[in-house]
Design goal:
single chain; 304 residues; alpha/beta; 5-stranded mixed sheet; two-stranded antiparallel sheet; 9 helices; 9 strands; globular; disordered C terminus
Length: 304
């Protein structure tokens, strides 16, 4: 495969801001409406955090989350000594995620869960709003899955050991060829029967609205012959926006959309499929959230 004709690998992972790079100006186009909502140059949001929530986060939530992450991380590494399937480690990650959400005082409801049973192997694509997106997805998706993450994380002690032993998929963004190789590793995971969960935007939203979606996830779904399932996360931006270090507890939701089939399509259809995917995510997100493409939610002000 010629990397120069392949889709951009800017597809993110189920981890915060893991944005593998890519090249080619036409290789990654998202829906025009979500893209317009996240255009650069918009005034930065200003978040008013009450003092009691700041103190609760700094002196209670963050220490408890750190302890939970360290504790469950050690358990997961021990399980990885014999669990090459990643099943036990994924179960530990699910308990870790639910623990973090309890500490954050933010229950999660899933809408449309019955749709997850129709296509057990698929590419599940979600909007990306917050560091808390990852715990929400691990806590509420009722199956084992894999994520894509920057290959550099494999060199980080403990983190890299977990990623390797649990079978996650590394993506190296240093060149188009290596980025495509990462996508093909994702395709291999799909063909082996393992679902993927991705953030096609590649980074957290700066203002709570949808950003440009990249076509890597559509490319993998097309190559593996599996459907794309749109997911919309609701409330995680308000819970913990980017560059804010205080939690604002609230109920959260995961909205599951109708699977988008890929039968009869080729990788040439990746851009069009990405546009359709993000149109579906946008419909769900703006229906259930406090956002519209043109306005900020209640409690968020913008600088003049």
């Amino acid at each position: 495969m010629n990397p120069s004709t392949s889709p951009k690998a800017d597809l993110g992972s189920a981890g915060p801001d893991a944005r593998p790079g890519g090249s080619g100006p036409d290789a990654s186009r998202g829906s025009s409406e979500p893209a317009a909502a996240g255009q650069a140059g918009a005034p930065p949001p200003v978040h008013e955090i009450p003092a009691h929530l700041r103190y609760l986060t700094w002196f209670v939530s963050i220490p408890l989350m750190a302890l939970a992450t360290a504790g469950f991380g050690c358990v997961s590494l021990v399980c990885g000594l014999w669990d090459r399937s990643g099943r036990q480690q994924h179960a530990v990650a699910r308990v870790w995620a639910r623990t973090l959400l309890r500490i954050a005082l933010s229950p999660v409801r899933i809408v449309g869960a019955e749709k997850l049973k129709h296509h057990p192997v698929a590419v599940y694509a979600s909007n990306h709003l917050s560091y808390m997106d990852t715990p929400v997805l691990f806590a509420r998706l009722p199956f084992q899955f894999r994520i894509l993450a920057k290959q550099g994380l494999w060199k980080v002690p403990f983190v890299g050991w977990y990623l390797e032993r649990s079978g996650q998929v590394p993506v190296d963004s240093r060149s188009p060829r290596s980025a495509v190789a990462g996508l093909l590793r994702g395709v291999a995971a799909l063909k082996a029967g393992m679902p993927l969960v991705l953030f096609p935007e590649g980074a957290r939203s700066p203002d709570g609205r949808l950003q440009v979606a990249h076509s890597g996830c559509a490319f993998m779904a097309l190559r593996a012959g599996v459907p794309l399932v749109p997911l919309a996360l609701i409330g995680t931006y308000e819970l913990l926006p980017i560059h804010v270090y205080s939690l604002r507890p609230r109920p959260l939701m995961v909205i599951v959309g109708d699977p988008i089939p890929t039968a009869g399509l080729t990788t040439k259809d990746a851009d069009a499929l990405t546009e359709r995917l993000y149109e579906e995510i946008g419909k769900m997100y703006y229906r259930y959230s406090d956002f519209t493409p043109d306005t900020a939610p209640e409690g968020v002000e913008t600088l003049p």
